[in-house]
Amino acid sequence: AAAMELPPSHGVANRAAALATGYLCYRRGSPGRGLALRCLRRARRQDIDDVGHKYYLELVLEDVLDKDSTVNCTAEVLYHLGNKNIAPDVQFTLEGELKNTEEADNIFYSRIKSLEKELVAENIPDSHGNVPPEMEPVRLLAWVASGYLIWQNSTENTKFQLAQIKRVKQVKRSDEYLEFDYTILLHEMVSQEIIPWQMTVLWHPQHGVQVTQDSRQPKHASQ
Amino acid sequence: DQVFHIVPETLQQVQHLQHLCSTLLLDFWKPQLPEDISTGEDLHIRVPAHLVQEVKDSLDHHMISYKVLIPDVQQLVDQSMPKERNSHRQVPEGYDYTQYHPMDEIYQWMTQIQKTNSELVTQHYLGKTIENRTMYYLQISQPSDKTKKIIWMDCGIHAREWISPAFCQWFVKEILQNYKSDPKIRRFLQNLDLYVLPVLNIDGYMYSWEKDRLWRKNRSPYMNGTCYGTDLNRNFNSSWGSIGVSYNCTSEIFCGSGPESEPETRAVAQFIEKKKSDILCYLTIHSYGQYILTPYGSTTEPPSNSEELMHVAKKAADALMGKYGTSYEVGSTSLILYSNSGSSRDWAHMIGIPFSYTFELRDNGTHGFLLPSDQIQPTCEETM
């Protein structure tokens, strides 16, 4: 079937946009660079028989640390029919360059590598929305890694966003990578649920961000 | 540094200004001496950068209207210590509208607001919450012999959306503080009464302060106290329980045991039902997402006055964007977000209130529910 134009305010198109943004952020992000969706410019949808639903999107992304810094992007998201265990396929093209974060990344890398005791922290941001400046890269790393979880677990009926880092603990490694064990809270917009999720995140300035293990956690017994 | 322009209205204000200026050793540009401050006369004072907020707070607290004549007189580069955002400033009695407040402080604030603005503001009983706390709304009404149409605004129906009650408080402060000096507000109040419910879901709000910051629902016990909370915005009698809800108490969108099963819902619904022929506009404030949402959530069928609803909403979104460039999406919930039933906004429209809107305030998801307090001011200013 041919691709159908959707209004940019369309709910499902925006969910596809959020998914694409999460994936993109995971692929291109670092503790010095987090990307968020500024707006959806254009969306088209194509129903492919026996395969699934494909969305063609034109997005504007912004740098989480510098809202005035934006980049345009085109993306294609394919939600597979039937089998809910396959993550959607995402392809994207960025127009233009992303800010270079090499220096900030290296500073963070050295700082953590030289810590005597492993870094441990809770509730980032805190209840009032505050993030201590030295924790900002730790927060962004979670933001980037959550992009992986968002990509792997989204359907056309879900829209995930990182709500808070409940806990983060550094795990010391003998190799060059930094490893962090995060327990984060994801907010799912349609069901309004807050979902705790544990993830192991590896990072190195030259090798990007990797989620090597993750596990959805049960909600606390509803008090 | 900034230069403030103030026209004192009462002797009380003159005295407070004299006290403030002499205590803080502010620089008089006009008149030359504090003794020459008088009602109805221009006052220009230069306030050093580090006292600007304190002076603003004091003026706010005493409901003294002011304009910033010069926003940046002189760069005072303070290298040693940037101003701490979190610590409380040394304002003894001031209410800080740029911070989030727990419920007991909001109760006190309501009492204070009525006391210091008794000509315009009255505090009224609305009902009780499931944990037996009292719900109050504020009525802002210019005395007049004619019956006026009403604009109703409620905040804090969802506990974790802290920016919402913060906005209601800001809104009240802005109206009262600028009532005498702003002809637009005066004209507004000549023809309309404002009813503001600063926190609808009081129990939930308190729970989000004390136990679980991301709690959403009320604190109604179900299943023998093994499960808590109804989503109050799924509990109204508008296609209740039909779509976009859960019948399971463990869900965040649990719609309750029946329409208006919750005392908070009933308190609001009974009041609005009683006054509905005079209510022109129903506003309910949420976060996050940056939307102005029109009916309906339960169906994609547009409401009868949909064109007019959209037109007004679009104008609001444009005005909002004009302030800081923040963009708000406008449209019906069922098309923009997801389907849901039992929302207060849908119900208000269904019983005949023509203009019914849900505002979803900042931000877009980067902070979500945990909006930093330094965004309270710009969020509220643009939404005003």
From TrEMBL, chain A:
Q: Name one GO biological process term.
A: inflammatory response
Query: By its UniProt entry, which InterPro entries does this protein fall under?
Result: CYSTATIN_LXN, Cystatin_sf, Latexin
Name all Cystatin LXN-type domain ranges: 2-100, 120-223
Signal sequence segment: none
Record Pfam families: LXN
Q: Where in the cell is it found?
A: Cytoplasm
Q: Which GO terms describe its cellular component?
A: cytoplasm; extracellular space
Q: Give the source's domain of life in one word.
A: Eukaryota
Keywords assigned: Acetylation, Cytoplasm, Heparin-binding, Inflammatory response, Protease inhibitor, Repeat
GO terms, molecular function: heparin binding; metalloendopeptidase inhibitor activity
PANTHER family, alphabetized:
LATEXIN
The family this protein is said to belong to: Belongs to the protease inhibitor I47 (latexin) family.
Question: What exactly does this protein do?
Answer: Hardly reversible, non-competitive, and potent inhibitor of CPA1, CPA2 and CPA4. May play a role in inflammation.
User: Know the name of this protein?
Assistant: Latexin
UniProtKB/TrEMBL annotation, chain B:
The record places the active site at 360 (proton donor/acceptor)
Q: Which UniProt keywords apply?
A: Carboxypeptidase, Cell membrane, Disulfide bond, Glycoprotein, GPI-anchor, Hydrolase, Lipoprotein, Membrane, Metal-binding, Metalloprotease, Protease, Signal, Zinc
Matching entries from InterPro entries are given as: CARBOXYPEPT_ZN_1 (IPR057246), M14A-like_propep (IPR036990), M14A_act_pep (IPR003146), Peptidase_M14 (IPR000834)
Q: Supply the Pfam families for this chain.
A: Peptidase_M14 (PF00246), Propep_M14 (PF02244)
Q: Where, per UniProt, does this protein localize?
A: Apical cell membrane
Provide one Gene Ontology cellular component. Answer: side of membrane
The Peptidase M14 domain covers which part of the protein?
A: 99-384
BP GO annotations: proteolysis
| Family as reported in the entry's similarity comment | Belongs to the peptidase M14 family.
List the protein's name: Carboxypeptidase O
Which organism does this record belong to? Pluvianellus socialis
Q: What is the lineage of its organism?
A: Eukaryota, Metazoa, Chordata, Craniata, Vertebrata
- Name the gene behind this protein: Cpo
